[in-house]
Write a structure and sequence with these properties.
This protein is an alpha/beta fold and 272 residues long. It contains 9 helices and 8 strands. The radius of gyration is 20 Å and the shape is globular.
Length: 272
Amino acid sequence: VPAQTAKAGDQAVKDGSCYLGRMSQFYNPRKTRNLYDPADTKPYKISRSKIDLFVECPRCYYLNARNGIGRPPGYPFNLNSAVDALLKKEFDVHRAAQTKHPLMESYGIDALPFAHQKIDEWRENFVGVQHHHKPTNLLVTGAVDDVWKNPLDELIVVDYKATSKTPPITLDAPWQDGYKRQMEVYQWLLRKSGFKVSDTGYFVYCNGRRDAEAFDKKLEFDVDVLPYKGNADWIEPVLKRVKKTLDSDTAPTQGEQCDYCAYTDERRKESS
C-alpha cells in the first residue's frame, strides 16, 4: 500500500471521514505481519476475534493466518466507540472511589468496579489479557471492556454494547452467539491469569431511543444490564483445532454460513 494512501486511511479512521470514502483507500488485502510459520518455535498470537473467525469459517481464518489474505473490514462504528469510551470514563469514577455505579444499584448487583493496576492494559487493543496456551504454543489475547468484583472475590467480566432497535433487548439472536463466545474467552483468560472468575458476566446494553419528538442535537439511550452465564469448555478443544489447521499445508473447508466464501465460490463459477 503506498505510504500516502495508508496515511490517508489512518486519518480517515481517526476523524470518522471514512464513512464518506471507499474501503479500498486504506484496505490492504495482503498482510505480511503475524503470519503463521509451522517451523517457528515462538508462541503465535491469536486474538479473541480471530478465534471467533475460526469458529465462523476455518478457511477464512487459515487464509488470513497462513497466507496473509484478510477479509474486507466493515466500516468502524464511531457512535458505538463513543458510547464505549464514555461508559469506561463513567465506571472509572466509581472505580477510583470504590463505590457502586447506579446501574449496579438498580439491578441489584453486589459488586464494585475492579481496581487493578493492569485494568488499562487489559482494555488495550492488541494487548489485553494474555495467556500462553502451552499445549498449542498459542498466545491468546483479548481486550475486555470492564471488570467488576463481587464480595466473594470473584471477578465479573462486563462487556459494553450499543444499538438502536425497537424490540426489547435480549441475547437470543443467533448472531449474538459471537458476543457470548467473546465473554467466555475473557472469563477463560482471567482464570488462566490466576483470578477467581464468576460464571456470570454482564452485558451493559445501550439502546438509542427513537421515540423522542425531535433530535435536538442529542441521542438518548435506555440502558439494560443483561446477565449471561458463560461456559468456556469449548475453548481448549477449539485451540487444538486451530493449531492443527495452522500446521496443515492445505486450507480447510469453508464455514457452512460464510458469506465471503459463498460469494467467492459463485464468482469462481462465473469465471470458469
